[in-house]
């Protein structure tokens, strides 16, 4: 009876719930400035450290806890989540791996150095591939060094026939992410405290859905590694309350956004 009343009372008072979105820590491919997408690169030493000292530290500082974690089927997302959870003494939490949260497939650009591609095709074309909304990079070919590793990755074995991409635009990624986002949002609105550990383009796709941004506005968004983005939802209406909050030092975050936006060396 007491438990029942306590539940009723907390339902009466608790009217909002938070959701946290984090891009995984720096990967080996991020470090080498290579297009990565569906290639399963591990985190770099720096990326492991960012997961501890930026993502987990800022979440602990903000006293934000979780009930459930969503990751992609790519190892770097899970690796970052594991480090964050260990640091938060929350390794017991359920972690769901879902391929629909995989990074955008970068097609035949996979494995290429971004600066070298810019030297060959021009900066404008590279930025159109990286930050255009409908631009689809050329499909990955069997001659690409990562073609077979991606195709035969057992982490992708549950992908329905016909849905395994050979390349994706931002737009395709936004469409792919929509159903899993709707599933996650339902849980958030039921009061589950969810952490999503995702990737650069997938994080932007989620941001577009969450903030209802236009196609023109979302292409200007850049998500740094390991900076938690916090959202708050009204549990009754399902609407977003206020704006996103990026946890961390404002100047550091701006510098990292600029770094992510740039083609790099
Ligand atoms: O795999 C990638 O994203 P990830 O490091 O977030 O998984 C991309 O290569 C990021 O590159 P971009 O910032 O040029 O889109």
CATH homologous superfamily heading: Phosphoglycerate mutase-like
CATH class: Alpha Beta
* Strand order in the largest sheet: 3-2-4-1-5-6
Q: Supply Rg.
A: 19 Å
Q: State the helix count.
A: 11
Quickly give the CATH architecture: 3-Layer(aba) Sandwich
The tally of structural domains comes to 1
What ligands can be seen in this structure? 1,3-bisphosphoglyceric acid
What does the model show?
- The chain has helices at residues 2-13, 28-31, 45-61, 75-87, 114-121, 123-131, 147-151, 170-189, 200-211, 215-218, 250-261; strands at residues 16-23, 68-71, 95-97, 194-198, 229-234, 245-246.
- The longest helix has 20 residues, at 170-189.
- Helix 3 (45-61) packs across helix 4, helix 5 (114-121) crosses helix 6 and helix 8 crosses helix 9.
- It starts with a helix and ends with a helix.
- The chain has eleven helices and six strands.
- It has a single domain (15-261), classed as Phosphoglycerate mutase-like (Rossmann fold, 3-Layer(aba) Sandwich), CATH 3.40.50.1240.
- With 265 residues, it is α/β, with parallel strands linked by helices.
- The chain has a six-stranded mixed beta sheet.
- It is globular, with a radius of gyration of 19 Å.
- Bound molecules: 1,3-bisphosphoglyceric acid.
- Residues 23, 27, 30, 35-37, 103, 106, 130, 199-201, 260 line the site of 1,3-bisphosphoglyceric acid.
């Amino acid at each position: 009876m007491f438990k029942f009343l306590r539940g009723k009372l907390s339902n009466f008072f608790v009217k909002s719930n938070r959701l946290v979105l984090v891009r995984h820590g720096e990967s080996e491919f991020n470090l080498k400035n290579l297009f990565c997408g569906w290639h399963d690169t591990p985190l770099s030493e720096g990326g492991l450290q960012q997961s501890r000292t930026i993502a987990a530290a800022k979440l602990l500082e903000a006293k934000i806890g979780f009930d459930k974690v969503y990751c992609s089927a790519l190892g770097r997302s899970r690796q970052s989540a594991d480090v964050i959870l260990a640091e938060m003494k929350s390794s017991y939490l359920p972690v769901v791996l879902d391929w629909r949260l995989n990074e955008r497939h970068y097609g035949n650009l996979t494995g290429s150095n971004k600066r070298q591609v810019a030297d060959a095709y021009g900066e404008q074309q590279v930025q159109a591939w990286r930050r255009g909304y409908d631009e689809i990079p050329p499909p990955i070919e069997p001659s690409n060094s990562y073609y077979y590793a991606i195709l035969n990755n057992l982490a992708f074995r549950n992908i329905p026939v016909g849905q395994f991409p050979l390349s994706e635009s931002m737009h395709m990624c936004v469409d792919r992410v929509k159903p899993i986002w709707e599933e996650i949002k339902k849980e958030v609105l039921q009061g589950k405290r969810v952490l999503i550990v995702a990737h650069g383009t997938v994080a932007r796709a989620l941001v577009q859905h969450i903030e209802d941004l236009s196609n023109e506005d979302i292409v200007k968004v850049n998500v740094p590694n390991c900076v938690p983005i916090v959202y708050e939802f009204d549990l009754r209406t399902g609407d977003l309350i206020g704006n996103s909050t990026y946890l961390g030092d404002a100047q550091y975050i701006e510098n990292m956004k600029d770094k992510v936006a740039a083609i790099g060396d």
